[in-house]
Protein backbone atom coordinates (compact mmCIF):
# COMPACT_ATOMS: atom_id res chain seq x y z
CA UNK A 1 0.00 0.00 0.00
CA UNK A 2 1.40 3.37 -1.00
CA UNK A 3 1.81 6.01 1.66
CA UNK A 4 -0.04 9.23 0.91
CA UNK A 5 1.25 12.65 1.80
CA UNK A 6 -0.66 15.86 1.78
CA UNK A 7 0.91 19.28 1.62
CA UNK A 8 -0.78 22.64 1.68
CA UNK A 9 -1.54 23.82 -1.83
CA UNK A 10 0.84 26.50 -3.01
CA UNK A 11 -1.08 29.79 -3.20
CA UNK A 12 1.78 32.12 -4.08
CA UNK A 13 3.36 32.53 -0.66
CA UNK A 14 6.39 30.79 0.81
CA UNK A 15 7.64 29.22 -2.39
CA UNK A 16 10.88 27.96 -0.87
CA UNK A 17 9.15 25.70 1.67
CA UNK A 18 6.58 24.48 -0.84
CA UNK A 19 9.42 23.69 -3.26
CA UNK A 20 11.24 21.67 -0.60
CA UNK A 21 8.11 19.64 0.19
CA UNK A 22 7.30 19.19 -3.49
CA UNK A 23 10.76 17.84 -4.24
CA UNK A 24 10.28 15.29 -1.45
CA UNK A 25 6.99 14.14 -2.97
CA UNK A 26 8.48 13.92 -6.46
CA UNK A 27 11.44 11.96 -5.06
CA UNK A 28 9.09 9.61 -3.20
CA UNK A 29 7.16 9.01 -6.42
CA UNK A 30 10.38 8.46 -8.41
CA UNK A 31 9.74 11.38 -10.73
CA UNK A 32 12.07 14.07 -9.38
CA UNK A 33 14.24 13.86 -12.51
CA UNK A 34 11.33 15.17 -14.60
CA UNK A 35 11.78 18.73 -13.30
CA UNK A 36 15.34 18.80 -14.66
CA UNK A 37 16.78 18.50 -18.15
CA UNK A 38 16.30 15.06 -19.61
CA UNK A 39 19.67 13.27 -19.51
CA UNK A 40 21.08 12.63 -22.98
CA UNK A 41 21.62 8.96 -22.16
CA UNK A 42 17.99 8.41 -21.04
CA UNK A 43 16.64 6.48 -24.02
CA UNK A 44 13.42 4.96 -22.72
CA UNK A 45 10.80 7.44 -24.02
CA UNK A 46 7.88 5.58 -22.45
CA UNK A 47 9.50 5.63 -19.02
CA UNK A 48 10.44 9.32 -19.31
CA UNK A 49 6.90 10.24 -20.43
CA UNK A 50 5.40 8.29 -17.53
CA UNK A 51 7.74 10.02 -15.07
CA UNK A 52 6.90 13.42 -16.57
CA UNK A 53 3.15 12.76 -16.43
CA UNK A 54 3.40 11.68 -12.77
CA UNK A 55 5.38 14.80 -11.92
CA UNK A 56 2.84 17.00 -13.74
CA UNK A 57 -0.03 15.34 -11.84
CA UNK A 58 1.74 15.91 -8.51
CA UNK A 59 2.39 19.54 -9.41
CA UNK A 60 -1.20 20.17 -10.53
CA UNK A 61 -2.60 18.63 -7.35
CA UNK A 62 -0.35 20.74 -5.12
CA UNK A 63 -1.24 24.15 -6.59
CA UNK A 64 -4.10 26.44 -5.61
CA UNK A 65 -6.43 27.38 -8.46
CA UNK A 66 -5.01 30.86 -8.91
CA UNK A 67 -1.48 29.51 -9.34
CA UNK A 68 -2.62 26.54 -11.44
CA UNK A 69 -4.20 28.84 -13.99
CA UNK A 70 -0.82 30.50 -14.57
CA UNK A 71 0.79 27.25 -15.77
CA UNK A 72 -1.96 25.68 -17.85
CA UNK A 73 -0.07 26.32 -21.11
CA UNK A 74 3.04 24.46 -19.92
CA UNK A 75 3.46 20.97 -21.36
CA UNK A 76 6.19 19.35 -19.25
CA UNK A 77 7.02 19.14 -15.55
CA UNK A 78 10.27 21.01 -16.19
CA UNK A 79 8.43 23.85 -17.95
CA UNK A 80 6.01 24.09 -15.03
CA UNK A 81 8.81 23.99 -12.43
CA UNK A 82 10.89 26.60 -14.24
CA UNK A 83 7.89 28.88 -14.74
CA UNK A 84 6.92 28.72 -11.06
CA UNK A 85 10.51 29.53 -10.15
CA UNK A 86 10.50 32.59 -12.40
CA UNK A 87 7.21 33.78 -10.95
CA UNK A 88 7.75 33.15 -7.24
CA UNK A 89 11.45 32.78 -6.53
CA UNK A 90 12.58 36.37 -6.65
CA UNK A 91 16.35 36.29 -6.33
CA UNK A 92 16.72 40.01 -6.51
CA UNK A 93 18.85 42.06 -4.15
CA UNK A 94 15.66 43.81 -3.03
CA UNK A 95 14.13 40.51 -1.93
CA UNK A 96 17.29 39.48 -0.03
CA UNK A 97 17.35 42.83 1.78
CA UNK A 98 13.63 42.57 2.56
CA UNK A 99 14.00 39.08 4.05
CA UNK A 100 17.17 39.96 5.99
CA UNK A 101 15.43 43.00 7.48
CA UNK A 102 12.43 40.86 8.35
CA UNK A 103 14.70 38.31 10.06
CA UNK A 104 16.72 40.81 12.08
CA UNK A 105 13.68 42.81 13.18
CA UNK A 106 11.57 39.74 13.97
CA UNK A 107 10.11 40.09 17.45
CA UNK A 108 8.14 37.55 19.37
CA UNK A 109 4.68 38.68 20.37
CA UNK A 110 3.55 37.81 23.89
CA UNK A 111 0.80 35.59 22.50
CA UNK A 112 3.30 33.62 20.38
CA UNK A 113 4.97 30.49 21.69
CA UNK A 114 8.71 30.04 21.41
CA UNK A 115 8.11 27.16 19.00
CA UNK A 116 5.95 29.31 16.70
CA UNK A 117 8.55 32.05 16.75
CA UNK A 118 11.41 29.64 15.99
CA UNK A 119 9.33 28.20 13.13
CA UNK A 120 8.88 31.71 11.69
CA UNK A 121 12.62 32.27 12.03
CA UNK A 122 13.38 28.93 10.34
CA UNK A 123 11.07 29.89 7.48
CA UNK A 124 13.08 33.07 6.96
CA UNK A 125 16.34 31.08 7.13
CA UNK A 126 14.98 28.76 4.44
CA UNK A 127 13.83 31.60 2.22
CA UNK A 128 17.20 33.33 2.47
CA UNK A 129 19.04 30.07 1.78
CA UNK A 130 16.95 29.55 -1.36
CA UNK A 131 18.18 32.98 -2.50
CA UNK A 132 21.79 31.82 -2.08
CA UNK A 133 22.28 33.88 1.07
CA UNK A 134 24.23 31.84 3.59
CA UNK A 135 23.54 32.36 7.28
CA UNK A 136 26.31 30.78 9.30
CA UNK A 137 25.29 28.36 12.04
CA UNK A 138 26.83 30.63 14.70
CA UNK A 139 24.61 33.50 13.58
CA UNK A 140 21.55 31.23 13.59
CA UNK A 141 22.36 30.17 17.14
CA UNK A 142 22.78 33.77 18.26
CA UNK A 143 19.41 34.74 16.79
CA UNK A 144 17.69 31.78 18.44
CA UNK A 145 19.41 32.41 21.75
CA UNK A 146 18.18 36.00 21.69
CA UNK A 147 14.59 34.67 21.61
CA UNK A 148 15.15 32.42 24.63
CA UNK A 149 16.95 35.16 26.55
CA UNK A 150 14.14 37.68 25.92
CA UNK A 151 11.51 35.07 26.88
CA UNK A 152 13.39 34.28 30.10
CA UNK A 153 13.76 37.98 31.00
CA UNK A 154 10.07 38.59 30.32
CA UNK A 155 8.93 35.56 32.32
CA UNK A 156 11.16 36.47 35.29
CA UNK A 157 9.83 40.04 35.36
CA UNK A 158 6.26 38.70 35.36
CA UNK A 159 7.06 36.44 38.34
CA UNK A 160 8.15 39.42 40.48
Automatic annotation (TrEMBL):
<protein>
    <recommendedName>
        <fullName>Gag-pol polyprotein</fullName>
    </recommendedName>
</protein>
<dbReference type="Pfam" id="PF14223">
    <property type="entry name" value="Retrotran_gag_2"/>
</dbReference>
Amino acid sequence: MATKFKIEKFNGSNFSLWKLKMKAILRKDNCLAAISERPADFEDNAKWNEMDENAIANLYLSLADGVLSSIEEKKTAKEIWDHLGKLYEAKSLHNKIFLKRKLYTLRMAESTSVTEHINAMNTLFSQLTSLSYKIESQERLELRFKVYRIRMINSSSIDK
